[in-house]
Every structure is written in C-alpha cells, then in structure tokens.
Amino acid sequence: MTLFVRWHIFTQVWGDYFIRSVAPLDMNRHACMQQRVEKLKEEVRQMFVRNALDHHLEEDLNLVDTLQRLGLAYHFEKEINEALAHIHDARLDSEDLYVVSLRFRLLRQKGYNIPSGN
C-alpha cells in the first residue's frame, strides 16, 4: 500500500507537464522537414557520384564511414555497395595509415576478402 501512495503522490507532483510542454508538430512543418530530408539525401547521393567520377577513393571511404557512424547508412545501401565495389577493384596508393585501415575495415565489414598483409 505504501508503494501505491508514493507513486500516486509522484504523479500528482509532475502531472502531465512534460506532455503538454511538447508542441504538436503541425502538418506544414512536418512536410517542410520531409522535403529537407529528401533534399539532403539527394545531396549525399550526388557526393557519391562526384567522388566516383573524380576517383576520390579517400573521400568515398570517409563518406561511407561517416554515414555508418551516424546510423544513416541504410538510406544509401545501393550507393555504399557501389562505392565499396569500386574501392575494392581500384588500387589505393596511399601511405596514410588511417586511409589504409579504414579501407580494410569497411571492406571487411561488407564481406570482401582483403588480406591483412596488403
């Protein structure tokens, strides 16, 4: 019975303050945000296209890594798979340890057979 009383008092103190404090999302604002999301997704797709045309493998690696870290990679699975296939087939002439290790990790995560000695 004591537990019920404490819980009951707690709900009276806070009430529905937090529920009321959140402004409802109107349809215009929601539609505007959806348009913004689609525009940004298209910009990211264009980044993949530009990097592929200009053979910027390091930028592609960083873009894929960033999208994965942000949890947005599922929006760009096709572009990421194409970029990683291109990165796998291309020769990366970089002595930068970060770039080499990033290439190794990203390709291994997608199932590519990358020897650790190269």
How would you describe this structure to a colleague?
The protein is mainly α and 118 residues long. The protein has a domain at 30-109. It contains 6 helices and no strands. The protein has helices spanning 2-14, 17-21, 27-54, 57-70, 77-89, 97-109. α3 runs antiparallel to α4, α4 packs antiparallel against α5 (77-89) and α4 crosses α6 (97-109). It is elongated, with a radius of gyration of 24 Å.
Structural class: mainly alpha
Tell me the quaternary state: single chain
Total beta strands: 0
| Order of H and E elements | HHHHHH
Tally of alpha and pi helices: 6
Radius of gyration: 24 Å
Shape category = elongated
GO molecular function, one term: terpene synthase activity
Organism: Anthurium amnicola
Domain Terpene synthase N-terminal: 13-116
Keywords: Lyase, Magnesium
